Automatic annotation (TrEMBL):
Required cofactor(s): Mg(2+)
Residues noted as binding substrate in the record, renumbered to the chain: T126, I127, D128, R163, M170, G171, R172, E222, R266, H272, I273, Q274, R275
NCBIfam families reported for this sequence: PFK_mixed, PRK03202.1
Lineage: Bacteria, Bacillati, Actinomycetota, Actinomycetes, Micrococcales
Protein name as catalogued: ATP-dependent 6-phosphofructokinase
Binding residues annotated for ATP, in chain numbering: G10, R72, T73, G103, E104, G105, T106
EC number: 2.7.1.11
Keyword Protein biosynthesis included in the entry's annotation: no
Subcellular compartments: Cytoplasm
Membership in a protein family: Belongs to the phosphofructokinase type A (PFKA) family. Mixed-substrate PFK group III subfamily.
Pfam (any one): PFK
Keywords, sorted A to Z: ATP-binding, Cytoplasm, Glycolysis, Kinase, Magnesium, Metal-binding, Nucleotide-binding, Transferase
Gene: pfkA
Length: 342
């Protein structure tokens, strides 16, 4: 079997580990051949591929990003898009199946193509950890580790000047990164999309900390909304999917804290730093297990399914189950952390 591998959507630490495991596992166990599809769905539509063999994946599991490139191309758009054209391109290139590694958008496109008869198996990828059909996704642990290190550094400079430090992390719809990093760093408040809070409540938490002669540290998800805000803060236009490009909620909150409390305050937007660099050991292991399991699914022609982590086991779930809804932070998890606020 000749298998095409693509990475689509946002980049994520651990993508290369999936590619390496899939190629090595497929070659050693089953004698499959592999091609890398360049730049996600764009490469599948355009027929832009490169050969993947043992030497081309040597040592890449520790490297961030993706050796195949990525994009946010819609495979159903353009003159070459759509299932019929893609099937013809795959036949021309001798590709028997596609291993698609990506998040919600990638898996949604994979489901549509699979429903139309394209043989596809998926691997879930998102640093936000927001896919409901898997307990964890690779990239999340790395993002939390980076955010935790940033929070630790902000604590020391905040303590030196007795400033309130506000750290903004990624999380469009869910607050898993903020929750885990905030708990790890001992934040005095954690603000997530699932739990709107008033500016008065946030200032009260900061004031309680300051009154104990401590420097407040607040961790906020980019998708957090103050009470009364109908949409998440955005001032950067739209992305490729016509969604608002988030970022900057910390820059809205920070001056309000200073104005209302008199505490000198600073904000830091961590941004794409959370996506870059080498994956943690935990993410390398999870990504490797996903890659090996995905090749087994391809070998057994389990089309229209993705691999998933349930407990400590790797299982398969249909694309449809992966797209039912987002995995939000449960209220009890947030209230658990809230006991330590202020």
């Amino acid at each position: 079997m000749r298998i095409g591998i693509l990475t689509s959507g946002g980049d994520c630490p651990g993508l290369n580990a999936v590619i390496r495991a899939a190629v090595l596992g497929g070659i050693k166990q089953h004698g499959h051949e592999f091609v890398g599809i360049r730049d996600g769905w764009r490469g599948l539509v355009a027929g832009d591929v490169r050969v993947l063999n043992r030497s081309s994946v040597r040592g890449i599991s520790r490297v961030g990003g993706t050796i195949l490139g990525t994009s946010r191309t819609n495979p159903f758009e353009g003159d070459q898009g759509g299932p019929a054209n893609i099937a013809a391109t795959m036949e021309r290139l001798g590709i028997d199946a596609v291993l698609a590694i990506g998040g919600e958008g990638t898996l949604a496109a994979g489901k549509r193509l699979s429903d139309a008869g394209i043989p596809i198996v998926g691997v879930p990828k998102t640093i936000d950890n927001d896919l409901d059909a898997t307990d964890y996704t690779f990239g999340f642990d790395t993002a939390v580790q980076i955010a935790t290190e940033a929070g630790d550094r902000l604590r020391t400079t905040g303590d030196s000047h007795m400033r309130c430090m506000v750290l903004e992390v990624m999380g469009r719809h869910v607050g898993w990164i903020a929750l885990h990093a905030g708990m790890a760093v001992g934040a005095h408040a954690i603000l997530i999309p699932e739990q709107p809070r008033s500016i008065d409540e946030i200032c009260d938490w900061a004031q309680q900390v300051y009154d104990r002669r401590r420097a407040p540290l607040i961790v906020v998800s980019e998708g957090f909304r103050l009470e009364g805000m109908e949409e998440a803060h955005s001032h950067k236009g739209l992305d490729a999917f016509n969604r608002p490009r988030l970022g900057g909620i910390s820059e809205l909150i920070t001056p309000e804290i200073e104005a209302r409390t008199g505490i000198e305050s600073r904000s830091t937007v961590l941004g794409h730093i959370q996506r870059g660099g080498a994956p943690t050991g935990a993410d390398r292991v999870l990504a490797t297990r996903f890659g090996l399991a995905a090749i087994e699914a391809v070998h057994q022609q389990a089309w229209g399914q993705m691999v998933s982590l349930r407990g400590t086991d790797i299982v398969r779930v249909p694309f449809a189950d992966a797209l039912v809804g987002l995995k939000v932070v449960p209220e009890e998890r947030y209230h658990e952390a809230e006991l330590l606020f202020g």
